[in-house]
Design brief:
By secondary structure, the protein is mainly α. It has two domains: about 70 residues, Arc Repressor Mutant, subunit A; about 160 residues, Four Helix Bundle (Hemerythrin (Met), subunit A) (Up-down Bundle). It is built from eleven helices and two strands. Strands 1-2 form a two-stranded antiparallel ribbon. Strand 1 and strand 2 form a beta hairpin. Helix 6 runs antiparallel to helix 10. The longest helix is centred in the last third of the chain and has 30 residues. The chain is globular and about 60 Å long. The termini are far apart.
């Protein structure tokens, strides 16, 4: 045929390490603003050479997920500084609000929950349970639980075993993070909403754990619809008070 194909090259070890490190960030094991493990620690964990780790970390710095601070070490970049998100560029200048994000999540995450119920392995279920427990602990201590919340939703994306689902959720990561944080700040102004949100997350987890695809979809739909309806009512209330 004479097609202009390029030679297939095996994936470099550093690329595989970079992919796993990226997943650890998105799953919430290493949080925005936290110091990244040292080259020595990571080389020991991955059982690879320090130059391999150095190359992987450099790759994540170029992607904008990490930043190296002179004399301090390497840190996960705070979300408001991540500039490589393709959605941020695509939506530049657009009037994006929480309702827009929630409507997209409604379609994206309901299907994800159903597929997670079919495909989640024991490791995925552990990630979901850990995120749920961390959320409860943070809320009990007066926090919002938003970091654990985003980890919970990312864990569902990974549970689908669908690389497109994962990449779309990764691309939405900073929208999702700030959306969830802003959602919870408003929602928790009404104390009873705290228990409702926790119960909704628990129902999603249990449905996925029990391999019930329809219940998983419905539980996620109930959760996102609850939040969406809350903000629609808030917007309508604000509009009526300005008229």
């Amino acid at each position: 045929m004479g097609l202009p194909v390029k030679p297939i090259k095996p994936q470099k070890i550093s690329d595989q390490v970079a992919e796993q490190l990226t997943e650890l960030i998105f799953r919430g094991f290493i949080k925005p603003g936290e110091r990244f493990p040292s080259e020595r620690e990571l080389a020991k964990e991955f059982k690879v050479s320090r130059p391999t780790i150095r190359e992987a970390v450099s790759h994540l710095c170029v992607k904008g997920l990490l930043e190296q601070r002179q004399g301090q070490g390497t840190f996960v970049k705070p979300l408001d500084q991540i500039s490589q998100n393709p959605l941020s560029i695509f939506f530049e200048g657009e009037n994006i609000n929480l309702q827009h994000i929630l409507e997209v999540r409604l379609g994206l995450e309901c299907n994800a929950a159903a597929f997670a119920a079919l495909r989640a392995d024991e490791s995925d279920l552990m990630h979901l349970k850990t995120s749920l427990e961390t959320m409860k602990q943070d809320i009990a201590q007066g926090g919002l639980g938003h970091e654990a919340d985003i980890s919970f939703h990312m864990a569902i994306a990974y549970s689908t075993k669908n690389p497109v689902q994962v990449k779309v959720m990764r691309s939405m990561y900073n929208f999702l993070f700030f959306g969830i944080k802003m959602n919870l700040q408003k929602l928790y102004e009404i104390p009873e909403n705290v228990d409702k949100i926790m119960q909704q997350h628990t129902e999603i987890y249990l449905a996925i754990r029990h391999r019930d695809t329809q219940a998983s979809l419905e539980a996620m739909k109930k959760h996102i619809t609850f939040v969406l309806d809350f903000f629609k009512k808030q917007s309508e209330l604000q509009l009526s008070t300005t008229l």
